[in-house]
Write a structure and sequence with these properties.
Helix 3 packs across helix 4. The protein contains five helices and 33 strands. The protein folds into two domains: about 160 residues, endopeptidase fold (from Nostoc punctiforme) (Alpha-Beta Complex); about 230 residues, 5 Propeller (Tachylectin-2, Chain A), CATH 2.115.10. About 10% of the residues lie in helices and about 45% in strands. It is mostly beta strands. The strands form nine sheets. Strands 4-11-5-6-7-8 form a six-stranded antiparallel beta sheet. Strands 16, 17, 18, 19 and 20 form a five-stranded antiparallel beta sheet that branches.
Length: about 425
Amino acid sequence: MRRSRRMVATMGSLALAATFGLVGAAASSVRAPAPAQAAASALGGTVGRSEVMARARNWWNRRNDSDLTYDMDLKTWDGTHSRQYRRDCSGLVDMAWHINDDPNTEALDTSTWTTPISRSALRPGDILDWTESWPGHAVIFGGWENEAMTRFWYYSFSNPRTNLSRVNGASFSDSSLVGHPTSQYQALRYKKITDAAGVAAVYGVLPDGRLTFTNINVATAARTHTVVSANALPFTPKAMATLNFNTILITATDGALYRIDVRTNSSSLIYDPPIPIGGGWTHDLLAYDGHDHLFGIADGVLHRYTIIDDKPGVTSIVNNTVIDSGFTLKTLASTGANWIVGTTSSGQLRAYYIRGVGDWSPYVLRSSTWQVFSHLVSPGDGVLLGHNGGGMNQYVDINPFDGLGADLVGNGAVDTSGWTQILLSAQPDAL
């Protein structure tokens, strides 16, 4: 906010000749990218929306570090150490967009960097910019939170009292955003941003209890990386949910809940001994929305929990809320904040927007044929991955929050065979 202006190739015959259960830790692979490094752009070059959000998320995850306290004069490295950026609101935008310059809020609102768009056209990675008075303010739009596209979330880097924050439940009907009149924010799109999707990170459990990790290039529906753990889980797994790139929750058939910390994803998949969190987890299905909410279904009853730590322990999963009964789903995934999606044994593909106890909206996206999928996972951005026998198919819902299935399209098969996992889950909100 200064005053001055200024995926890798698809795995070939080796991968398809062997099932995932046989590829093992010795398979040739590349290092799985950390969330802030997915689909890395060149400094000052075009950048995908998924990378913009991953770069912003990297700073937000580091928000308590001493080198990320708010300061309009000091700079801090981005997650890939390609450049240092100012520790203020426009610096956050410049860093997320991977700009090789330091435009302030005023400069961002010019044709040099951006194109004005309508607020209804906002997509993750666009910004809202306020320049009515010095020093102005800018926030990174994260995504819509409801089907009417009236509530959204965003990343903000503001004064020393708040520093980096992720604000949920914002609305253009609010009187202000971060203390400035909402009516005066301009929706802007970076001229070098692209809609190219990023990488879906999918975890799984094989019949013998070993864990798997797979990268899928969502733009091409190509599997690019698969590794398998050497060790099997010391319990019989029942349901799983991925919290983030290196944290998984898995329940056991006896009702125990475990946290699995994955320590590396390169040529091998290594995880620490499972950490017990508690008992009574009899859920048949689990899904995490990437926005602090864990959903579980037990005997058709939908529960929603709040997770308050990236690495939850016994006291970190709170607010067990019984939403309602009648959720007789065969599969369960989450496509965004408080959005879940699943299939039924009769073949329907259903989406639900969850507000609270007894307060939810159901949508039928497809009325038949989806019973063939034994698992459904989503890395976000409208992408759905359906596990059908030994194959994996990809679909894209152009607007996953409109409750309509007319814009749901098939994007081809990731693989026609080889997927033998008994449980699958994707890192949520990662695209």
